[in-house]
Amino acid sequence: MTFELEIDTKAQAWLAARPRPDALVIDYDVHRCCGGGKICQVSVRAQTARDDPNDYARGESDDGTEVLIDRRAAARLPHRFGLTVSGLGRWKHLDLQLDPEGWGDLLWA
User: What is the pLDDT of residue 34?
Assistant: First the structure.
């Protein structure tokens, strides 16, 4: 399955202010805390030389940017979703744009 991503205007401006990556990568990491709880983290970043595209599911943004998606996240994401900017000041970053149910499926399923 190929994912379709819509990049909103905030994310387009954020990307335009930086060197354009070959691809964006959606990382998904799961940690267990001492009480047995599960902590899931999702991040969106530029592709690096260490990223093997064959290790990821593939998506494409509406502007043609390739998006590589951690396979664990890909199993829980809808076919279509968006990218936006979250955070303030120097902590601004690209983030997924999902409805509450989509976040629930991704993080707590």
Answer: 72
pLDDT of residue 21: 84
Cα 45 to chain centroid distance, Å, stands at 8
Reduced to 3 states, what is the DSSP secondary structure of residue 34? coil
* Superfamily of the domain at 3-108: HesB-like domain (2.60.300.12)
C-beta separation of 106 from 77 below 8 A: yes
pTM confidence score: 0.88
**From CA 8, how far away is CA 101, in angstroms rounded?**
20
Q: In what order do the strands lie in the sheet with 38-46?
A: 38-46, 23-32, 66-70, 56-61, 3-7, 80-86, 93-97
Residue 24 has pLDDT above 80, yes or no: yes
Question: CB-hemisphere CA count at 13 Å for 49?
Answer: 0
Three-class secondary structure of residue 5 per DSSP: strand
Strand, coil or helix: what is 27?
strand
Count of beta carbons in the 10 Å neighbourhood of residue 109: 8
